[in-house]
Design brief:
The chain is 18% helix and 37% strand. The protein is of the alpha+beta class and 329 residues long. The chain has helices spanning 2-31, 46-55, 114-123, 186-195, and strands at residues 35-37, 59-66, 76-80, 86-88, 92-98, 104-105, 127-134, 146-150, 156-157, 162-168, 176-177, 199-206, 216-220, 226-227, 232-238, 246-254, 262-270, 273-282, 287-295, 299-304, 307-312.
């Protein structure tokens, strides 16, 4: 009985000694090693940070990268553990490194076609903002091209930033005052449209017995309205208009010799209306010709610098006649 109790006591002593040895080993090996202070790494470049942790017998562990507007590229944004923390040697210090600013410098877009400028913005991860179109004085080749941008080129902006563009519509068209074609023969109305740089639009016919044969009944735009060069004009004509006989007329005039150009006007009078078929400047000595298909036998004359120089057809009556003017605004 006493022998059994003695062996049990020996076993307990042996177990206690084993536990004490294990605790001492763990304390010395694991918890008893030297500790160092974690250095300040935030704001330092990666090379300097590696050197700093190496001097402390620590090592650097990269846990990610992120954009930062204040910390330069390849510099430390964040560290774990924090600076000053006591850490065993050969332990890791986790860091996040900056990828630099996310801002993008704006490209130069002035002078590019709108589609090309929009494509360039998309490639740069930017957006096309407001597009404002205006007439300009650069010339016809500027139409559809970027005149200005906001913000200006090389300005730093974030991805997705909208860039406003000012785009050219080309030179501002020179508007004219729509002449009064009502009552004129259809052929003269066509010549008037050509003289003022207008286009013939839709033509409809009506029959009015009380209207002069072959006359224009209605027009759109109305007389006196502002029209642009090349604009279409719709006419309503008497049904007899297109069947009216036209006579071919050829008028020639020799511009007198001298030092200065002359303003030569070919003016035709039909009934109670007068129309300048041509009004241009010509150099001295030039032979000016006018060929036109006109209804019947109209009166006509050539004015040289406002003075009658030649006439054809029956004698012109003395009272003045109204002149269709296409005076620019």
């Amino acid at each position: 009985m006493r022998t059994g109790w003695r062996y049990g006591l020996y076993g307990l002593c042996f177990l206690a000694a084993a536990l004490a040895g294990t605790w001492l080993t763990v304390h010395l090996v694991v918890r008893g090693g030297p500790e160092v202070d974690v250095p300040e790494l935030t704001g330092r470049d990666v090379v300097t940070a590696l050197k700093a942790v190496g001097e402390k017998d620590l090592y650097l562990s990269l846990r990610g990268q992120d954009f930062d507007e204040t910390v330069p590229k390849d510099h430390i944004i964040h560290q774990d553990p924090a600076p000053g923390t006591r850490l065993k040697k050969n332990r890791e210090v986790k860091v996040i490194v900056s990828k630099g600013s996310a801002a993008i410098p704006l490209p130069e877009l002035v002078g590019l076609p709108l589609e090309q400028a929009a494509s360039l913005l998309r490639l740069g991860k930017l957006k096309t903002g407001r597009v404002i179109q205006v007439h300009d004085m650069v010339g016809p080749t500027s139409s559809g091209r970027v005149l200005a941008q906001a913000p200006e080129p090389l300005t730093l902006v974030k991805p997705g930033f909208p860039v406003d563009l000012l785009v050219s519509l080309g030179p501002r068209p020179k508007y004219r005052v729509m002449p009064d074609l009502t009552g004129q023969p259809y052929s003269l109305a066509l010549m008037a449209l050509e003289t003022y740089g207008l286009q013939l639009g839709r033509v409809t016919e009506e029959e009015r017995s009380h209207w002069p044969p072959g006359g224009v009944l209605l027009q759109d735009p109305a007389p006196g309205r502002r029209v642009a060069p090349g604009q279409g004009v719709q006419l309503t004509v008497n049904r007899e208009t297109l069947a009216q006989e036209l006579v071919f007329h050829l008028v020639e005039y020799d511009v007198p010799y001298g030092f200065y150009p002359h303003q030569i006007q070919f003016r035709m009078v039909l009934g109670a209306r007068a129309l300048d078929l041509s009004d241009q400047w010509h150099p001295p000595g030039e032979k000016v010709r006018l060929a036109a298909a006109l209804p019947g036998d109209p009166w006509g004359r050539v004015l040289d610098d406002g003075q009658e120089a030649l006439r054809w057809g029956p004698p012109l009556p003395e009272p003045p006649f109204p002149i269709l003017s296409g005076e620019e605004e």
